[in-house]
Amino acid sequence: MEVGKGYYEISASIRSLKRETENVYSAVLSAGNEMGSSVPGQFINVQVSQEFNSPVLRRPFAVSSVNGNEFEFIFSVVGRGTKLLAGMLENQKIINVLGPLGNGFIDGNAERKLLIAGGLGIAPLKRLADHFHGMNIPVTILWGNRTSGDFFDTVHYNRENTVIICSTDDGSAGFKGNVLDLLKNELGSGNIGSLNSYDIFAVGPDPMMRSVAEFVERNNVRCQISLETPMACGMGVCQGCAVKKRSGEGYYLVCKDGPVFYSDQIVF
Fold this sequence. Notes:
By secondary structure, the protein is α/β, with parallel strands linked by helices. It folds into 2 domains: about 1-100, Elongation Factor Tu (Ef-tu), domain 3; about 110-220, Nucleotide-binding domain of ferredoxin-NADP reductase (FNR) module (Rossmann fold, 3-Layer(aba) Sandwich). It is built from 5 helices and 16 strands. The protein has helices at about 80-90, 120-135, 180-190, 205-220, 255; strands spanning about 1-5, 5-20, 25-30, 45, 60-65, 70-75, 95-100, 110-120, 140-145, 160-170, 175, 200-205, 225, 240-245, 250-255, 260. Strands 11-10-9-8-12-13-16 form a 7-stranded mixed β-sheet, sandwiched between helices. A 6-stranded antiparallel barrel has the order 2-3-6-5-4-7. Strand 12 (about 200-205), helix 4 (about 205-220) and strand 13 (about 225) form a beta-alpha-beta unit. It starts with a strand and ends in a 6-residue tail after the last strand. The mean pLDDT is about 95.
């Protein structure tokens, strides 16, 4: 059923559920060709329970890969809704999904791409990296986590024209420090060239994206970010996911105008 222009309510078949880390899961669903026209950065809104007295609001998740009529999303179990979702994906055959929603990343014109992920910010960037890999464009991925046990599926990026460099807050894997510290280190060592020679994309917790955005803007560059604002309808009807515009008055709706923005468009 088509809900709106480009949006569909999908009864998706559950193909697999994989536990990636202690709290992180990846789920592969299949449907018709509804997701085939989606682009990196768009998201789905998933019904987490069919019970009326359970959480009413859907949960938004980035689409992390699309392969034919199958698509993947990655999520962390952090509360009642995502715990119910994990149970549904494990025990049911069908799940209700709304998508593809929102606006995706813009490719940009630079010959090299720099993708900066904090934690589960790797989810939308995974599909973006695959997109650029298919175009034979060099990609450097910086991925930061709290500890080594938070990384998963890093072998996916072991391929031509893709480099992944990791950091951990506790130093248990890769560079010791957060992902902004890693970025500064790679710039200082010359492993990454001048920032203005890259299209830059950053996804993760708001404080991480804010710090990365401030740093690159001080270097006269801007980056694209993807906000993870809680949302209800996912289509701009409820107006519950407003974010203030940096220039001029008013607000953007993350679900409709985003979730991808240039860093200098919004106030974190």
